[in-house]
Amino acid sequence: MLKEKFADYEHRPQQLEMAEEVYSCLKNKGKLLVEAGTGVGKSFSYLVPVILSREKTIISTASIALQDQLVHKDLITLKAIIPHNFTFAILKGKNNYLCLKREKEFVELGDAYTRFREWASATNTGDKDELPFIPDFWFRVCGDSVDCSGKECPFYDDCFYYRHYRYLYEVDILVTNHHILVYDILSEFNLLPFHNQLIIDEAHQIENVISDVFGTILNRSRLFWLLYRLKGLKIAVEHLFEPIESFFKGKGLQTQTTFPIPENIITGLRELKGLLSLDKIINRINTSKTVIAGETEPDTGSPDAANDMRDKAETTINYVKSLSRDIEDFVEQGDNERVYYIDWNKGYMELKSNLVESHIPFEKLIQNYESVVMTSATLTTCRDFSYLKDRLGIEGFKERLIGTPFDYKKQALLYIDKGLPPPDKGNSELFQRESLKSIEGLINASKGRALVLFTSYNHLNFTARNINIDYPFKSQGDMPPARLIEWFKETANSVLLATTTFWQGIDIKGEKLSLVVIVKMPFGSPGDPVYDERCRRLRDRWFRDLALPSAILMLRQGFGRLIRGTEDRGVVAILDSRLVTASYSKTIITSLPKMEIVHTIDDVKRFFEKGGLNGSNSSD
Question: Which domains does the chain carry?
C-alpha cells in the first residue's frame, strides 16, 4: 500500500519483519521487546498492526518530536491509505493548555500580554502549540495539577484540557508521553482513558522517567506559590517570605549536587516547617471559607466570584497537605527505596528525591494492559536484552532484534583516536586541551557539517571558548534546541557543539551532517546521586551490570545521529582512547555496527575526498 501511494517509498524487509512481530504480539495478547535498528521505520512497523488490530491502544514516547510526528504526519498518512476507520489524538500535560480560571485571575501590562489576550479570546483549543510565541508568564496562566479541582472547578464544563480529555475516551489510538504514562500508575490508573494495548517507543528511557515521577522536589517556587495564594485568601504571610528566601539560598553550600543532604539543612527545614505552621493554615482556611465567600459575593454581586474563592480555598488546602507531606518526607528521609539530595536551579537550592529501582512500578504498569510492546533503536548491548530486563525486572517478554537496513561498511567510517590521553579525572584538563586539536582536525577534514557531542557542559564550554575553525558554529544554550537544529540545517558547513538532549532524537538526513564526534564515552557521572546509589547497591557488579551497559546504550544513541538514510555517508569519531586500551573495549565495539575503523585524521580526509573507504582495518 505504501509503495503504491508514495513513489519515493523504500521497501525495507526489516520494517515488514517488525510489523509481523508486533501484529502477532497484539493478536495473541502477548508482550514483546523489539529493538529496531536505525532506518527500519519502526513507527509504521507498530502503527499498522495497531490499526489492523482494531483495539484501543496507547502509544507512549519520550520526545515531543516523535509525538508530533506520529499525530501530525504518520497517522494522518496511514488514515489516508488504510481502508479501516480509526481515530487518534494526543494527550499532553495540563501545562500545555490555557487554564480559564488562572487566566481570569492574571493581568499584566505590555505587548506580550496584549498579543496573548488576542489569542486567548479567539482560541478553540487553548493549546500552547497554537501560540506564535510563548510568553514568560505562561506558567501563571496554564493548567497546573496542584491548582486544579477538576469537576469542582467553576470552569470545568468549558475547560480546554478536560474538554479534550473527555473526547479521548472515544478515540482508538491515544498518543502520550512517558511522564503521563507513569503518572497514570500514581493515579491508580485513573488518569489515562482505558485502552487494551500499550506501545512504549523510546523504551530505553522509561526507567529514568519512573525514577523522576516517583520522586519529589521541594523548592522556593513551591513555597512562594503558596504564600501568594494565601495572600489572595487574605491570610497574613508577609513575615514568611524572608526566611523561605534565606533557606533556599543555601548559604554556605557549594552550588553543586550534594548527597546526602547535610544535617544543618535538615535542621533548617525542620525549623522552617515549624515557622510555616501548615496545620494552622489549613484550619484558618477551613474556618474562613464561608467568610471569604460572604465577603466576596456582596462586593461583586456575582455568585461566580464566591464559587471562585471557594475553589481557591479547596485547592489551597490540598496543596498545603501535599506540601506538608513532602516536607516531612525530606525531614525524615525514611523511604529506603528513594535517594534524597540537593540540587541547584538559578542560584537557589532544591531538595529532591528519586526512586532508585523501578521494578515495582513497571510491573504495575504492564499488568494494566492485555498486550505490551516495548521498542527503541537501542535496547541491547552486544545484541543482548539482559541490561534492560534487569533494570526493569522484565519477565515473560518475547525478544526480537531487527537489524538496520543501512550498510555501514559502505556508508560510514569509524575513527578512534588512540593517541589522546585517557579522559579520566586526573587527566581532565590535559584531555580537554589535546582533544580540542583532534576536534579541529576532524572538522576541517569534513568541512564543517559536524555534530560534536560532549558528556559535560564544562568540556563543551572550554571547546566553545577556544576552538579555532573557519566554519560557523554554535553551542547548546545559544538558542532553544529546536531553533539550534533549524540553524544547523539552514547554515552551510555548520558545526554544533552539544551535550545531554542532543545525544538522541536528532534526525538530520543528507550531507548537512557528515561527521559526529563523540568526545568521551558517556559513562554515568560520579556525583549523580541516583546513579551513585544504584552503583552502591550493585556492589562489585556496578561496572559490569550498570556503568558499562548504560554507557553503551547512550553511545549507540549518539552514534545513530549520523546515518539516517540509505544515501547518507559520513564519519563517527570517538576521541576516547579507552576504546583501544581498556579490557572492555571489545564489548563496546561489538555493540556498534560493523564498519571500517581508522586511527588517523588523514584516513578521515581521504574518506571525504574520495567518497569511499580506503581499505583500513575492519571491525569484523
Answer: 12-87+171-212+358-402 (3.40.50.300), 95-156 (no CATH), 216-286+312-354 (1.10.275), 408-610 (3.40.50.300)
- Integer CA distances (angstroms), 510 to 395, 495, 502, 514, 555, in order: 40, 15, 18, 8, 21
Helix, strand, coil shares of the chain, percent, nearest 5, are 50, 15, 35
Phi and psi, residue 374, nearest 5°: -115, 130
34 backbone dihedrals φ, ψ, rounded to 5°: -140, 115
**What does the DSSP assignment read for 370-419?**
SEEEEEES---BTTB-HHHHHHHT--S-EEEEEPPSS-HHHHEEEEE--S
Task: Single out the residue of 205, 211, 216, 178 nearest to residue 92, CA to CA.
Answer: 178
Contact 399, 33 (CB under 8 A): yes
Strand partners, 35: 376, 401
Report the distance separating Cα 142 and Cα 326, nearest Å.
24
pLDDT exceeds cutoff 90 at 234: no
Answer yes or no: is pLDDT of 619 > 50: no
CA-CA-CA-CA dihedral for 522, 523, 529, 531, to nearest 10? 110
Q: Whole-prediction pTM value?
A: 0.88
Pick from 302-316, 442-456, 509-523: least confident? 302-316
Residue carrying C-alpha cell 586500551: 581
- Angle, in degrees to the nearest 10, between helices 359-367 and 206-213: 100
Would the pLDDT of 620 be above 80? no
Each residue's pLDDT tens digit, 360-384: 999 999 999 999 999 999 999 989 9
